[in-house]
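W.,

You were right to be curious about this one. When I first looked at the sequence I had no strong expectations either way, so I just let the prediction run and decided to look at it fresh. Below is the sequence, 194 residues in total, followed by the output.
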Amino acid sequence: MTSTQRRVHFDDYCKRGYQDALRFATFITRDRDEAFDLVQEAMVKAFRSYEKNGELPEGRAWLQQIIRRTQIDRVRARQRRINALSLEETLEDNPHQIPTDPRLNPEQKLMAECPNPEFEALLSTLPENDAKAVRLSLREDLDESDIARQLDCGERSVRQRLARAKRYLTQAARSARLMTLVQAQAQKQQGAAA
């Protein structure tokens, strides 16, 4: 099949499935304009896949899967932009805050971002052994085998505890930054109104 024939074949495929794709995208996004953009972006990805693989699966599932994954990618990208903007605003609003060194690992960044009383309060919400594993890893700089000996458990268990605790603490730190931004914005609005 020549390139022109493939394009015509794909064009026919898109014409047949466009309305279903648009309905599905509208259902996912709850916004008709965003759904149009989403379908167009998904169609471009579908065409690239078709050119690469040379196959067009029949039915709606393939195109719906591309739309779903494209929407997930868009939401994640939007969230990354929001997080980056939030961090910039936090640094602008609080010039006394020391920016973290980009060469630090995630655990060290977390320790630098959270003052000790707040960090201890967060640790106290974790299960006891998870909190101990974090303290041993971050404060005493022990590796997984040493932590396993201290906690009398396996290294795999230590890895699971640290991963679970890091996910929770990272999410809590993000939420705390977001709350700080909301409070700062509210104070700005109150100051502007006064």
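Here's what jumped out at me. Residues 94-100 have pLDDT under 50 and may be disordered. And, maybe more interesting for your project: The longest helix spans residues 155-193.

Coffee later to discuss?

I.
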